Amino acid sequence: MKLKGFCTCIVLIIITIWPLWVLAQPSKKIDIAPPLKIPLLLSGNFGEIRTNHLHSGLDFKTYGLPGLNVYAIDDGYISRIKIEQGGFGKAIYINHANGYTSVYGHLLSLSADIDSLCDDYHYSNNKFGVEIFTKPNKYRVKKGEFVALAGNSGGSMGPHLHFEIRETNSQMPVNIQRFFSLTITDTIPPTIFNVWIYPMDSTSFVNHLNVPQRFKVKEKYGKAILEAEQPIIVQGNISFGIETLDFMNSSMNTLGVYSIELFRNNILEFSQVIDRILFSENRSVNSLIDYGYYFSNKKRINRLYVQPNNKLPIYNNVRNGGVIAINDLSVSNIRIRLCDNNLNVSEIKFNIKGFVKDKSKALKTTVNKEVTKRIDCTTSNFFRNNQMEINFPALSVFDNFTLRYQQLPKTYGLNSDIHYVNNEDVPINKAIILKIKPKNLPLKLHHKALLCRLDNRGVIDWYGGVYADGYVSAPIRSFGKYAIVVDTVAPVIELITAFVKDKNFTDWDKIAFTVKDSQSGLSSFSGKIDGKWVLFEYDEIQDLIYYRFNLKRLKSNVMHSLSFEAIDKKGNISNYQLTFYK
């Protein structure tokens, strides 16, 4: 009997430590040089939950300033250069012999030879956007060689370096901290704020209620514990969620966790581990979280449940999609363990107890003045009346749901009734097509019509769309209140450097405009000096468009004439003319 008890103890120890041991045993880390020669502090990490995506790299702090040197992490060659209005702004890609590609984004400027290559491309194609795939080994770099200056270009909210490592063939980003040797000091485990328990159907309950229940977490003697009385009473099919963030030494920024595991009586029921990311499945992040709670509260709950059409490559050892059936009076121990990228661990334990209740008393919900239709997430669906139509491609949502629809009367400034799909808590995976029939829209304005989305205060979010066959249609990615509007207002151009005395730019390095379009949005822009196209660059965050004087292409000490044009997405055009001395 003693031997049997000893063996049982050993088995339980192995079951307990095995998952963490596996996490701690990646293949030997690949040696790389740091991309910045400063202490590496993160403002964002790999797999961190962002709006509509998981973050695909590491965001390194640069003391809040642009202009720090960026270095190649290993020998290789620059394989791709991309410059765009949003996204990574200015970015370079370096292929390495080990089968990986390093990516450096939001750059201020590039090395001299690459900058010259891009400049030639800009002017030969008369366009700001650049994407150049270079010949293998033409632009070789050595490990630790200067390649660029860190900056704030593209969709950046502040100076930093966005750094990724991808598998070259698949272009899948990989978790740098788990597979590569970068020294990032972090001894702080993840923080658990709240645990949630979800009844998964109308016959399931948590503490006798058929709605999700939040349980606050506090720290006691260095351990996370639930404030709630235990055991928590549950019945039927339940799942769990957790509110958590990670922190690191010497930084106030919040980060995402690396792994989450849920055990019931020491049996692993659910596991997510973020080692790789699929760009094609980015929007599945809205299925990873409790999207309805995020929509209402702007706080993210990581659901420990996998919806049918959630294809994120992060789930391992998930039993029954993460749903646990409790149909007796037994007590179960629940243990949730979280791990960050430096393998700092947080853990919380609590007990749940089954409660048998008459399932015939399932809750029924009714909604007044709404038309409803059940939408199957696996097939194509449609919903229509004589004023609107919604087309759902197969797999366009992550799970089955009941569509709730109301038609509301048009208000001032709108060119249709308001069509309200009251399912803002349902995330959309693949874009669905919404068509709305206009009311009293003159023929001459058909090409100016587009869809808009109205929030609860009536504020308009301009969406886009085209008129065809009596409807204005557009792909949409969220539910809510939609109607038709027209855009006949051209972008507003203002010269920032208008104060320059006598328009003498001798001591200036650039001419800058703010270009704003509060309706359909800016589509394109271009500028000419003395009748020749010149490169205007775009800072999307600040609505700033500027031309840096290129003295290799511009005559000095003479008067020049500049013409600048901005066009919005409905073809409304603004022009600006300027005569200046340089």
Question: Can you describe this structure?
Answer:
By secondary structure, the protein is mainly beta. The protein folds into four domains: 32-181, Glucose Permease (Domain IIA); 191-361, no CATH class; 371-486, Chondroitinase Ac, Chain A, domain 3 (Sandwich), CATH 2.60.220.30; 492-581, Immunoglobulins (Immunoglobulin-like), CATH 2.60.40.10. Helices cover 9% and strands 42% of the residues. Strands 16, 17, 18, 19, 20, 21, 22, 23, 24, 25, 26 and 27 form a twelve-stranded mixed beta sheet that branches.
- Give the overall silhouette: globular
Q: Can you count the helices?
A: 5
Helix content: under 10%
Structural class: mainly beta
Topology readout:
Blueprint: H1 2-23, E1 30-31, E2 42-44, E3 49-50, E4 53-54, E5 58-61, E6 69-71, E7 76-83, E8 90-95, E9 100-105, E10 107-110, H2 112-125, E11 130-133, E12 140-141, E13 146-150, E14 160-167, H3 176-179, E15 180-181, E16 191-199, E17 205-206, E18 213-220, E19 223-226, E20 232-245, E21 259-264, E22 267-273, H4 285-288, H5 291-297, E23 302-303, E24 315-316, E25 324-326, E26 331-339, E27 345-354, E28 371-375, E29 381-384, E30 388-392, E31 401-408, E32 418-421, E33 432-436, E34 449-454, E35 460-464, E36 466-468, E37 471-476, E38 480-486, E39 492-495, E40 510-516, E41 522-529, E42 532-534, E43 537-539, E44 544-548, E45 559-568, E46 573-581
Parallel strand pairs: 1-15, 20-27
Antiparallel strand pairs: 2-5, 3-4, 5-14, 6-13, 7-8, 7-11, 7-12, 8-9, 9-14, 10-13, 16-18, 16-20, 17-20, 18-19, 20-23, 20-25, 21-22, 21-26, 22-24, 26-27, 28-31, 29-30, 30-33, 31-32, 32-38, 33-37, 34-35, 34-38, 36-37, 39-40, 40-44, 41-42, 41-45, 43-44, 45-46
